[in-house]
Amino acid sequence: MIITLINILILLITPFLMIGIIKKTKAFWAGRKGVSIFQPFWDFIRLMNKESVYSETTSWVFKFAPIVLFTTIFFASLFVPLATGTAIINIPFAFVIFSYVLGFGKFFALIGALDTGSSFEGMGASREACFSTIVEPAFFIAMGSIVALTKINSFENLKMITENAGIYGVLIITLAVITLFIMLLVEGCRVPVDDPTTHLELTMIHEVMILDNSGVDLGFITWGSAIKMFIIEALIAALIIPSGLPIWLSILAFLGIILIISISIGTIESSMARFRMTHVFEFIFIMSITALLILTLVTYKIYGN
Amino acid sequence: MKLYFISILLLILGGILSLFFKEEYKLKFCSIVAGISTFLLSILSFRCLITGTICSKTIEILPIFGGINFVVDTLSAFFILIISLMSLLGIIYAIGYTEPYQNKKMNLNSHCLFLMLLIASMLGVVIVQNSLFFLVVWEIMSLSSFFLVIFEGNKKNVLNAGLKYMVYMHISVIFIIAAFALLNIESGSFNFNDFSAVLSKNSQITNIIFVLALIGFGTKAGLVPLHNWLPDAHPAAPTHISGIMSGIMIKTGIYGILRMIYLIGVPSKLIAYTVLSIAIISALWGVLYAITQHDIKRLLAYHSLENIGIIGIGIGIGLLGLVFENQIMAILGFTGGILHVLNHSIFKMLLFFAAGSVYKKANTRDIELLGGLIKKMPYTGLLFIIGSVAICGLPPFNGFISEFLIYAGMLFGIQEGNNIAVFMTLIISLAALALVGTMAILCFTKVTGIMFLGTPRSEQAQKVDSDVENTMLIPMSILAFFTFIIGFFPQYAIVPVLAPVTMLLKEKSLPTVFNSVVELMSTISLLFFILLVFLIFMIIVRNLINNQNRQHTTWGCGYNRANPRMQYTASSYADLFVSTLKPMFKRISHIKKPKDLFPKEAYYKVEIEDIEEAYIVKPLIKLDEKLLSKFERIQNGNMQQYILFGLIFLIVAIVGLIYLG
User: Fold this and answer.
1) Could you tell me if B599 and B456 lie in one domain?
2) Whole-number Å distance between alpha carbons of B240 and B27
3) Are residues B526 and B600 in the same domain?
4) Together in a domain, B207 and B280
5) Which residue in A28, B310, B598, B650 has a CA-CA distance of 20 to 30 Å to B614?
6) Is the peptide bond before A66 cis (omega within 30 degrees of 0)?
7) Could you say which residues from 355 to 384 on chain B have a Cβ atom under 8 Å away from some Cβ of chain A?
8) Can you tell me whether residue A52 is helix, strand or coil?
């Protein structure tokens, strides 16, 4: 019970801090002092108190979409192993439910964007939908391979790789971390796939989809996206942290990994520009390649002799 | 068994009697008759599914057929349930849909008759177990649906599509005849029961027969590469017919395949891999082309391919489980596949009906001309969104349940597998199913977004003033209700599916593994309720912090006079994806470039043709024409020569008889 409470607490608080840390890192590399790491939270509160502006073109779909997006992301986060190494709800085939629940939210986010009748938002929706067609199969190949390796079909299996793969474990974990990290950049819309701070509508992906959202809706969307990034980071953490640690240590390690990933996202964003749209595809395809490499290694491990 | 016959005869009788009614009352009368008959049938078949009792009767009609076996086992009962429920909804929908066609000399007479005949023959297909009579009923089904497709036969493209359908159906029936003929030679009988003795030997001949049957039934079901009739026939047919054909009729092909599997028992590896790989290709092919289509009914037809593919993947996983004696995998695969048969008929009919309502109001099927309809047709819009979410296999609707079962089957196979080939196949199918899912999301966000959201893109869409009448909304609402029920109570929804699965596994009673499947489904149901509670909670929270709202125009980068033509179109929405996969499509662009100093007219339009049709079917037809045109000389209209041909034939026949006979 206490473990679940700790997890929920971390799930609610950390995403904002994570965004704050990314911003702080970017400020550090730019030589600025930067805003406080609690600023995203204050931004959220401010958005909650603002009035919303709705386009005359929109229907109920537009108002409904942010809520669905947020709810599904929050719901999907319940299946992911969090700070203490256990998920709040632990069920078999969690990763299938995880990605389909996120898909439900994405569906509404996409039609919500199309509801405005703006060509910018249509463009963003088209890109978002298109990229996820590359991300999902790669994710499924990687997870399927890990299921085959560990013989466990819930997300708990991420922790069991070393026990099962022996010497190949390190390699598999590295590849899996790369796969998930690219997924994080795509789903979290960070540089080099997308730039959350750009103000050029033509080059944006996720940000351009929510151009017309304001007030409470925008607040929920930003919180939702933060949680989405956070849960993918949590998956990476689950890969790295071995099982069987004492709870306090595993919480510490978890927070440490979140911190490191956030700092590295900030560093990447300060050190490079976003890719041209055609190159984004090539970048995301790296994910498929690493996933296939995981598959190869796992196949070799199981059937190799 | 008598009651089954009575209800089927009632359908045919209703069709004939409807000839004597006024055009306004024809379909109402049909729906009452069909209502009585299908009510009876669904109760009977449901009882059969729960209790597992098999009824059978042998009747002698003509000496050539021998004794015709009519058998209702659980597999047939499951299909009877789907056919009776769904076709009733189709007929009720037709009352509203055919209204504009009444009293315009459109020949509603034959339409009603053939509609009832189609339903009766579909029911016949699933209960007849005599191969010769099966072919007769199968042919009645194909023909009656052909006449239904060419309802608007005065339009040239409708007639062409109808003829294409006819040709494909007869190619399919040739293969089925070949399969049955081989079976007859081997077993010396026309009865399905005697076939299983031949088929279960699992020799080379079994594989040949199965592949022949797979081609034959697969054409009906719309499996790649013999799928081309689907995207043409569905747009040509009136909507309720498209709904019935896509929702139910193509499932008779699946029934045929399942029946063959049942007769075979434990199939060979070859069969399992063939089914799985064709299914994967169909699923990918269907959704890939669906993304490129802008005719809503054509798009939905391609989605039928996709869903038949998913059903096939489920069956393929089940077969792999049977072959490699992995019971849980077999159960999950078959359960997922067969449940998807039901699910697909629910949401595909829902989508077709909603599309038909839009067609009735806006008079166009081109989604590029629509937009903003959700404000004028709120119910149809909502129902279409429900259908789209369901067909994408997203929770908490019914599509997810069946896809999840298939995933679970694959993952159990992956987990316990000890064979590298199976492992690789399963991983590929896992990735393929995930890919199909995300592409379906791309496709259906396109359709919903462009058709119902945004602002109207043409005058036709502007002119739509109200939603369709209740007789059309009610069947759609019932279907939408089904998607919810199956989504939220999967543990009960899979109960009717378990009986046919048990039959396919050749088990006497429900294996104990089923309990764990039902348990899994209860977990899913619980999760969905949590999701629902969350969603409701969040909506309440959202309304509590309801601040002031303001209306304004859509943000246009500072430009405030955005017009509907500036919106993203369906082509542009799909373009990023389509251009990434260039070699998969044949693009036909119609372009008129702006000219002169003050350009007046310019347009760019792109159509995408199925490469299988463009590069394989069309060249084949050309070759065929070229070859056959050589024989034109024989057919010269000269009667004397024809008599000569007849004479030559007779002489040859007699000489042949003397020497050979």
Assistant:
1) no
2) 12
3) no
4) yes
5) B310
6) no
7) 371-372, 374-375, 381
8) strand
Indicate the residue among B496, B531, B566 that finishes a domain: B531
- Please check whether residue B73 lies inside any domain of the structure: no
Q: Which one of A70, A100, A298 would you mutate to disrupt binding with B, by most B Cβ within 10 Å of its Cβ?
A: A100
Does the beta carbon of A216 lie under 8 angstroms from any beta carbon of chain B? yes
Query: Could you tell me the residue range of the domain that residue B350 belongs to?
Result: 131-211+221-506+514-531
What tens digit of pLDDT does each residue of A22-56 get?
A: 999 999 999 999 899 999 999 999 999 988 899 88
Q: What span, in angstroms and rounded, lies between the C-alpha atoms of B411 and A147? A: 7
Tally of domains in chain B: 2
With respect to residue B39, please indicate whether it lies within any of the assigned structural domains.
Answer: no
What's residue B582's pLDDT? 83
Report the C-alpha gap between B400 and B339 in whole angstroms: 11
Output the pLDDT for position A199: 67
Distance between CA A156 and CA A86 in Å, rounded? Answer: 7
Percent of chain A exceeding pLDDT 70 equals 98
What is the reported pLDDT for B51?
85
Q: Which of B554, B573, B581, B582 to mutate against chain A (most A CBs within 10 Å)?
A: B554
Cβ <8 Å between A104 and B395: yes
> Would you call A133 an interface residue with chain B, using a CB distance cutoff of 8 Å?
yes
Q: Are residues B490 and B601 in the same domain?
A: no
If asked whether residues B489 and B602 sit together in one domain, one would say: no
**Confidence category of residue A286, pLDDT binned at 50, 70, 90:** very high
pLDDT in tens, A214-253: 889 999 999 999 999 999 999 999 999 888 888 889 999 9
Of residues A59, A122, A211, nearest to B375 (C-beta)? A59
CB B90 within 8 A of CB B243: yes
Question: Tens digit of pLDDT for each residue in B323-343?
Answer: 998 888 999 999 999 999 999
Domain-embedded: residue B326: yes
| B392:A148 CB<8 A | no
The reply to whether A74 touches chain B by the CB within 8 Å rule is yes
Residues B343 and B283 in one domain: yes
Distances (CA, A) of A125 to A121, A208, B570: 6, 8, 12
Q: Do B437 and B353 share a domain, yes or no?
A: yes
Return the pLDDT at B469: 87
Residues of chain B with pLDDT below 70 are 661
Among residues A175, A156, A178, A169, the alpha carbon closest in space to that of A243 is found at: A156
Q: By the CB < 8 Å criterion, does A89 face chain B?
A: yes
All residues of chain B having their beta carbon less than 8 Å from the beta carbon of residue A52 are: 547-550
Q: What is the pLDDT of residue A244?
A: 80
Residue B399 and residue B482: Cα distance in Å, rounded?
11
- CA B594: distance to chain centroid? 43
Which of A53, A91, A139 lies at the smallest CB-CB distance from B523?
Answer: A91
Residue B600: inside a domain: yes
The C-alpha of B520 sits at a distance from chain A's nearest C-alpha, in angstroms, of 8
Cross-chain residue pair B434–A121, CB shorter than 8 Å: no
ipTM: 0.95
- Across the interface, whether the CB atoms of A136 and B438 are under 8 A apart is answered yes
